[in-house]
Prior knowledge:
The chain has 431 residues and is of the alpha/beta class. The chain has three domains: 200 residues, NAD(P)-binding Rossmann-like Domain (Rossmann fold, 3-Layer(aba) Sandwich); 80 residues, Orthogonal Bundle (N-(1-d-carboxylethyl)-l-norvaline Dehydrogenase, domain 2), CATH 1.10.1040; 121 residues, NAD(P)-binding Rossmann-like Domain (Rossmann fold). The strands form two sheets. It has an eight-stranded mixed beta sheet with strand order 3-2-1-4-5-6-7-8, sandwiched between helices. Strands 10-9-11-12-13 form a five-stranded parallel beta sheet, with helices on one face. Helix 6 links the parallel strand 5 and strand 6. The chain is elongated, with a radius of gyration of 24 Å. About 1% of the residues have low confidence.
Amino acid sequence: MRAVVVALGKVGLPLAARIALAGHHVVGADVDPRVVELVNNGEAPFPNEAGLPEALAETVADGRLRAVSDTAAAVAEGPDLVVAVPPLVVDSSARPDWGVLDAVVADIGRGLQAGTTVSIETTVPVTTTRARVAPALEAASGLKEGVDFHVVFSPERIFSGRAIADLDKYPKLVGGLSAAGEARGIELYASFLDAEVRGLGSAEAAELSKLAETTYRDINIAFANELARYSDELGIDVLSVIDAANSQPYSHVHRPGIAVGGHCIPVYPRFLLAGDADARLPLLAREINERMPSYAADLAGDVSGRTVLILGIAYRGGVKETAFSGAFALRDALTGRGAVVVAHDPMFTADELRGHGFRPWDGTSEVDVAIVQADHHAYETLTASDLPGVQVVVDGRGVIDAARFTGVPVRRIGRPNDSGADPGSDIAPRS
Length: 431
C-alpha cells in the first residue's frame, strides 16, 4: 500500500510511522518546514512519544517514510490511502474555526486521483464528512465520490505519549459514505493495524462515536466533581466514596479534579452540542467542570494581597501542552480575588511562561499559597521547604504527600485536610 498522511503532529506522525512499520510506503505532508526537515532526518519533532524516535530512525533510513511540504503534489502521486489529521482549530469557547481543515481538504482535492480513499481522522461535528469534506473534494478534483474515489471517517483513539501502541490496542472505527467506501476503508486500515477494524455503517455513526466517548468522560468527571463538592460540605473523603461505589461492577465513576483540559474533552462536547440543540447533559457538565478552577481558588481562602504559586500550567502532567488548561481560569480567578499570581512548570522555560501570560516563580521567593494544577511527577516529592513561606497548599490533582507539609494545611478537592493543621486557618500576614 502507498499512503499519504497529512499533518505530522502528535496524531499524524505516529500514524505515519505505524503504517511504515507495517512495510508500506508513506509520504507525510506538513506545512511546517522544520517538521519536514526533522522527519527526513529521522528525528521526532516533539518529545515524549514512546517508540516514535526508533520508528522514525528505522523507516526513514530504509525509505519507507519521507516528509514533504506540498500536500497536493504528494496526493497527486495516486496513493491508495490519504489520511488527514489536521486540527479543527477552535476559539476560546471551543467553537470551530474551519480554516485549517478546509485548507487541508482543498490541498488534497487539488491532487486527488481516481482510486484513492480519503480518510478524515480529525474529530468533527456530525455530518461534517458527508456535508463538508466530500463536496469540497469533489469541487477541487472534478471527481465523483463513490465513483472515482471514496471518503471515510475514522476517529483517532490514541493517548499522547503512547500513540503507536494505542493504534494497535483499541478497535479502529471506520464509517463510510457508502458501503463500498467503508469496505475499502476497512481493508486499507486492516493492512497495517493489529487491532480490530470495525465498520460503523456510516460516517455519521463514526463521527458520533468519537463525540460519545469523549463527552461521556466529561459528564462522568462533572458528576465526580459534584460528589467532591458535596463531600467537602460533609467532611468526608470522596475517593473512598467513589472507590466503594466502583466496587459494584456497574459503577465507573471517574475522579474529581481542578480542571478538565486538553484538545479533546473540553472541546468535543461542544461539537456534539453544535449538532444537537436539545442536548442538556453535555452543556451542564461543561458548566460544572469549567467552575472547578474557581472552586480550587476558594479552597485557598482569602488571597487578597497574597502571593499564590500555580504549580503547573500544562493541562495535565508530563505533557508540554496548555490547550484549555485550567491554569488560565485559575490565574484569572486568583487575580480577581486580589492575589499576586506566579507560576512554575518544569516543562516550560521562564520565557515560555511569560509567553502564556504567567509571571515565572524564581524558585526561592516566598509564597503564601501553592496550588497544584498539573500532576507533574516533580510535584509528588515536594516538601514545605521547597515552597518558602507557604502557609496553605491546595492539591488540585491529589499528588502531594501531606506528610511532607507538617503544620501546613493541605486542602484537596473532596477530601479532608491531611496535614493535621487547621484546614480553616487563615493565611497569616507577612512580618
